[in-house]
Amino acid sequence: MEKTSLEILKQYWGYDRFRPLQEAIIHDVLLGKDTLGLMPTGGGKSLCFQVPSLQMEGICIVISPLIALMKDQVENLRKRDIPAIAIFSGMSYREVDIALDNCIFGNIKFLYLAPERLYLDLIQERIRHMKVNLFAIDEAHCISQWGYDFRPPYLELSKLRELQPNVPFLALTATATPKVVEDIQEKLGFRERNEYRMSFRRENLGYMVFDEENKMNRMLRVIKKMGGSGVIYVRNRRETQEVARFLLNHGVPADFYHAGLDMPSRMKKQEAWTNNQVRVIVATNAFGMGIDKPDVRFVVHLDLPDSLEAYYQEAGRAGRDGKKAFPVLLYQQADRDNLWLNIENDFPDVKFIQQVYHYLCNYFQIAYGAGKGLVYDFDLVEFAKKYKLEVLKTISALKFLERDRWLSLSESVYIPARFKFEVDFQELYKFQVQSAFFDPLIKAIQRLYGGVYDYFVPINEFELAKLIKKPYEEVVKMLTMMQTQEIATYLPKTDAPQLEFLQARVDYKNLYIDTQFIAMRKAYKQEQVKAIYQYLDEKHCRSLAIQRYFGEEGEEVCGACDLCLTRDFKTNESEKIALEIQQLLIAKPMYLYELIEALQIGKEELRLQTLRSLLDQQKVLLQDGLYSWNGLLYR
């Protein structure tokens, strides 16, 4: 008898019920319908494909642009005894080959794929032969040219429909405007419109926006007032260190985080913050995706985000536990001006893009007509420094080169060392007898790592060195020697981004760049910046402004943002002033100057405003310059 969705949820995750929308989405997936789910950060998107896939025969292929998140999800599934693997940039051809064989002939239930892997004919051909039950597309807004985080490799997803025409798509995202919602379904070839959305309103979040001259002191006051742990977002790596130092100097346990740190350092910092050993993490936008710390009480932006989508994602990392939390945005006029100026860096001219391509080919010493399929570790900062290029402008150029399929660039991610024996047990035993020098290491590998004869397994050279009582460097040398002698394959660890050339090198003057697309993206980017300005200038309610941007109707103010709190405070204060005016004027009529001076509550502007309101309501009368109470009790 097949298990129900709730039984699977209980068996593997220990939950008794689904969150809002999860059950409806799972129901449609099981019916084979193409489905789009819009669920805020922390809304439980992954269960929407994991649960139904476990109910069905076959394998679920999950596409995600975030390698670190893929690795985390694979690890979490394996902890629950659910077979899962991930294929991403940085893996060797042979590793990929073996992993795909396991998907076809083994018992793998989830295959996580980075979207750029779909460029490979090998992967496309193997998917054709898999028994796929579902294609799950995470961060689905990346497929849309109108999305805030458009990723060119996502355009390859249409090939999945060609490879497996009858397999449904489940597209998931936390942020999508109505235009993006349409575009996702069109690009993925949905057979009919089918979308579920949770409200973009987060009732427990009080959005705050302040035009602030001294942002550092305001940030410090926010941290001390709110308590709990939090995240401070800044624009560049230098700022992360400066702000963290400022907080430490003022007694706040803080640390910094950015993509330039090596992976062990990043993991250590993240763990310290997650375990509340560090109260505040100061980071670039490289931090936070896939982080599910429930007790974040505040998220402070010291720089303006590039779009409301990005802001909503980052601000939404506060208050995952449902308790009150505050996203705070601090800005100055200069920040507004710079946001518009930054658009120029995001959209370099064609000549600059061609120049970057030319330098890349020279950097990796690629001959004309050669280079297709070659993959390299890529240090962007070193590359930009060598050719005296602006880093941000260079990143933008690489994105447009990727969009026009000249290259593919993966994110920076830590990939541990991997190892596999290439001979059978008997052949290996002969080698051990003939080469006693390697015997302790081989035995240690066999003892620590299962499956090492069948597929690549992650290994830890330090652990091996400790076990056989040899220096780390000597263990690495021995592993390399075993590879040279074709006894095994050893792939050293890396945390560098991977750059792959998708086409053979051409003369940069003949390099095709889609200028029309660049112009269209630039115009859209300008609209996104204007939306940020509108959010800053909002007069009514921050939560309603966010809902409107994402196409969600609503009229009820949140009562928790800076605008609502200011309005409520003024209303309460005005009521107190009105009662005081009533008491003074019942006692005797008064001239304006003596009435205003006699009042004890509020500033002069609000006192005059309240008096005008009472005159309009005819509760106060004005005759011959004297104000008097009209005899009606004020309520």
Quick take:
The chain has 635 residues and is an alpha/beta fold.
How can the largest sheet be summarized?
A: 7 strands, parallel
Order of strands in the sheet with the most strands?
3-4-2-5-6-1-7
Q: If you consult CATH, what is the topology of the largest domain?
A: Rossmann fold
CATH-level-4 superfamily name of the largest domain: P-loop containing nucleotide triphosphate hydrolases
CATH class of the largest domain: Alpha Beta
> How large is the radius of gyration?
30 Å
**Helicity level:** 40-55%
Bulk shape: elongated
Approximately what portion of the residues adopt beta-strand conformation? 5-15%
Q: Could you say how many structural domains there are in total?
A: 5
What does this protein structure show overall?
The chain is of the alpha/beta class and 635 residues long. Helix content is 45%, strand content 14%. The chain has 25 helices and 22 strands. The strands form five sheets. A seven-stranded parallel beta sheet has the order 3-4-2-5-6-1-7, sandwiched between helices. The longest helix is centred in the C-terminal third of the chain and has 26 residues, at 562-587. The chain is elongated. The relative contact order is 0.09. InterPro entries: DEAD/DEAH_box_helicase_dom (IPR011545), DNA_helicase_ATP-dep_RecQ (IPR004589), Helicase_ATP-bd (IPR014001), Helicase_C-like (IPR001650), P-loop_NTPase (IPR027417), RecQ_Zn-bd (IPR032284), WH-like_DNA-bd_sf (IPR036388). Residues 215-364 form the Helicase C-terminal domain.
